């Protein structure tokens, strides 16, 4: 069994101001995505300036934050937030939904594309390989917060999370680290190398949706579902898995349509 590294969720305290690691992970994810985007910018569109790219990153980041928070409220704990709407503002305590964030990113991308002469999937194909940076950072934030841990297990790398997080004090799967490895590292490598060669429009977006959906669906088997929801059906189906099924099917459909109807675009890696 591995020892859980007890990291204070608060990275820095300045009087009443507390800077949480969870929030810093979002800054790292957004900053890393912006840096990588600047490296890919000239091959995506040589006429775009860094200022325009910064605008895109800003609106996509807003989509992540607003969509992620509202998605968690709607998908995972609506009664609690209806009872106390001010809880919506307490983002430093966690409570973000990837699927809600994805919807927010899609809306922001559609809006930005219309204003800048780019199709929705042109931009989504450009953005998709950047997303795993934020996903990986977010999972590290979950790990530091000692939240979203896995089921009890006797595997050698099991961890006992702090009592304030897990009163039962059982050895558990560190599912946050599984998701970091799959959604962060593996997904980044897949999309990075896949997008290095010319691909039809929609193909990179489809590969992102397919791989993320599969990775998340698999990890949900060893991750404890949110207490307020539990399992939705069959004693194993979680909300995360339900939300991933449309992603998997949509990813397959996008890839099929991309290779059937579209000519390859230049590589932007």
TrEMBL record:
Q: What is its EC number?
A: 2.5.1.145
| Coiled-coil boundaries | none
| Keywords linked to the UniProt accession | Cell membrane, Lipoprotein, Membrane, Transferase, Transmembrane, Transmembrane helix
> What does the entry list as the binding residues for a 1,2-diacyl-sn-glycero-3-phospho-(1'-sn-glycerol)?
139
A Gene Ontology molecular-function term? phosphatidylglycerol-prolipoprotein diacylglyceryl transferase activity
Q: Pathway of this protein?
A: Protein modification; lipoprotein biosynthesis (diacylglyceryl transfer)
Entries under InterPro entries matching the protein: Lgt (IPR001640)
Top-level taxon in the UniProt lineage: Bacteria
Enzyme kind, highest EC tier: transferase
Q: Where is the signal peptide?
A: none
Q: How does it sit in the membrane?
A: Multi-pass membrane protein
TM segments? 19-36, 56-76, 96-113, 120-140, 177-194, 201-219, 231-259
Where does the UniProt annotation locate this protein?
A: Cell membrane
What GO biological process, any one, is recorded here?
A: lipoprotein biosynthetic process
Name the predominant localization.
membrane
GO CC annotation terms, alphabetical: plasma membrane
Task performed by this protein? Catalyzes the transfer of the diacylglyceryl group from phosphatidylglycerol to the sulfhydryl group of the N-terminal cysteine of a prolipoprotein, the first step in the formation of mature lipoproteins.
Which family is annotated? Belongs to the Lgt family.
From the Swiss-Prot or TrEMBL record, give the protein name. Answer: Phosphatidylglycerol--prolipoprotein diacylglyceryl transferase
Q: Which organism is it from?
A: Pseudomonas mangiferae
